[in-house]
Design a protein that fits this description.
Blueprint lengths: L1 E5 L5 H10 L9 H4 L7 E2 L2 E5 L2 E6 L2 E3 L2 E4 L9 E2 L5 H17 L4 E4 L13 H8 L4 E12 L8 H12 L3 E5 L2 H16 L7 H10 L4 E8 L2 E10 L3 E9 L1 H6 L1 H11 L7 E6 L1 E2 L4 E2 L1 H9 L3 E11 L1
Parallel strand pairs: 6-8, 13-14
Antiparallel strand pairs: 1-3, 2-5, 3-4, 4-7, 5-6, 8-17, 9-14, 9-17, 10-11, 11-12, 12-13, 15-16
Length: 312
């Protein structure tokens, strides 16, 4: 009934068409996004057909006999369209397990797309993981999200910082000043954690050129100089803050607060959720309380990003 075929580059157009009309896919699963770092991951994605019609996709890579969905992405899991049913998804996972077992895979690590990114409900895969795979949840990380049409009230401190930014003459606008923002971001990450951004400036420029409607930068300016910004990933349902950074002046003048005020109260958008991203470290074992406290001050509340594993 089902046929599972390994993805090959000549199938990119068919793959991308399916992602666009799927009920839980985002532009992160477009091959033009996935393949920018193809040299870092050994791809073993599959395309699942039912009676000759493409039924589902599984973006995945293999490392040391372990299949991951997908190490190069924030989330992954089975990408389905509106016709996917619970019964068929259970059958499909049985066949996927057989397929990957025959390919020498010993274990699967599965990170589903969080429900807030679903265009319509799409958790048939979670039922199949429990029912068919006996999968175990091995990590639970918490993100902070705002329901844009009905936001929770901001804390008094956050409101005061917005007023401070306005008094200091800070302005906010969409910008193409990626190099200046990347310099602020890189300095912050290095001084705080000794790390670099996941993307280089060249990579983010490349991705933005491929997805100009999905990747955008909003900046805070003082006397014409960028003092902070937020790189946004825009999907049909969610505005996700991929990177946030302000310099010392931006921190002192409330630049981030004014950016958030601009995004939520002055921009026209069709999305339902604003997703700040995760505030956990060490695969969810440690909560960064200071970081999540700031996000909660903007009215954000918890949505979990889960990881499941099972042995073949």
């Amino acid at each position: 009934m089902f046929e599972i075929r390994r993805y090959t580059p000549d199938k990119a157009e068919e793959w991308n068409r399916f992602v666009k009309q799927s009920k839980n896919g985002t532009f992160l699963f477009d091959r033009q996004y996935m393949d920018y770092h193809a040299d870092r991951f050994h791809d073993h994605s599959v395309m699942c057909y039912l009676k000759g019609r493409l039924y589902a996709l599984l973006p995945a890579n293999v490392s040391d006999g372990i299949l991951c969905s997908h190490q190069g992405l924030t989330y992954g899991g089975l990408i389905m369209d509106e016709k996917a049913t619970a019964a068929n998804t259970v059958k499909l996972f049985h066949l996927l397990n057989d397929y990957y077992r025959s390919a020498g895979i010993r274990r699967i690590i599965y990170r589903p797309t969080p429900w807030i990114y679903h265009r319509i409900p799409a958790e048939e895969d979670l039922f199949a993981i429990y029912n068919e795979c006996q999968g175990q949840m091995t990590a639970k990380e918490i993100s902070t999200c705002i329901l844009i049409p009905h936001p929770t009230k901001w804390s008094t401190l956050r409101k005061r910082c917005v007023m401070k930014a306005k008094r200091n003459g800070i302005t906010v606008r969409m910008t193409d000043d990626y190099e200046a923002f990347w310099q602020i971001l890189s300095q912050n990450l290095f001084h705080k954690y000794g790390l670099k951004p996941v993307h280089t400036i060249g990579e983010i420029r490349l991705l933005q050129s491929r997805f100009p409607d999905n990747i955008q930068l909003v900046g805070a300016y003082h006397h014409g100089r960028l003092i902070g910004g937020m790189l946004l990933y825009l999907t049909p349902i969610v505005i996700h803050s991929q990177y946030i950074a302000t310099d010392d002046e931006g921190k002192k003048t409330g630049a981030l607060d004014l950016i958030m005020h601009h995004l939520l109260h002055e921009m026209n958008h069709s999305q339902v959720f604003f997703d700040f991203g995760k505030s956990t470290e060490e695969h969810g074992d440690k909560l960064n309380e200071n970081l999540i406290h700031q996000k909660e001050g903007f009215g954000g509340r918890g949505v979990c990003y889960d990881t499941y594993e099972w042995t073949l």
